[in-house]
Design a protein that fits this description.
Elements: E1 3-7, E2 14-18, E3 23-27, H1 30-36, E4 41-46, E5 50-55, E6 60-64, E7 71-75, E8 81-82, E9 84-86, E10 91-95, E11 109-111
Parallel strand pairs: 3-11
Antiparallel strand pairs: 1-2, 2-5, 3-4, 4-10, 6-7, 7-8, 9-10
């Protein structure tokens, strides 16, 4: 069985996931924009993986936006998104950026594109730098 590992930005929370990812969605809904502070969320989904917290499970906070199905887990120390168990553990959602092991699955689809941020158009034409510009 495939093993994946990940952590938060400050290293307080560490996890391991055993299983395969079935989908990799880039969600452009307004909730994901607010929750990430970016143009979209990049989340991996697994229907049969086992999530094991290696460290810092007591630092994981879950927030569910009232009257919606939108929820997210994050490190209470640094605010980094971390995996969330949904549907009574039947579905695991893993923020792709929290992975320490390589993400080998390609994105499956863009979701809620009607909510795309206005500034997200033609990003491939914006200047690119290897690090900070000089």
């Amino acid at each position: 069985m495939t093993q994946h590992s990940g952590s938060c930005l400050c290293g307080s929370v560490k996890y391991q996931l055993e299983g395969e990812f079935h989908n990799f969605f880039l969600c452009h809904c307004s909730y994901c924009q607010k929750g990430t502070g970016s143009a979209h969320a990049a989340n991996l989904f697994s229907k049969n993986a086992q999530l094991n917290w290696l460290q810092g499970q007591d630092k994981v906070t879950f927030y569910n936006l009232p009257e919606t199905r939108h929820g997210r887990s994050f490190c209470s120390t640094c605010g980094s998104p971390v995996p969330t168990s949904l549907g009574g553990g039947k579905l695991i959602m893993v923020p792709a950026g929290s992975m320490d092991s390589p993400v080998t699955i390609k994105p499956t689809a863009h979701l809620f594109i009607a909510s795309k941020a206005d500034w997200e158009q033609e990003l491939d034409q914006v200047h690119q730098f290897q690090g900070f510009p000089e």
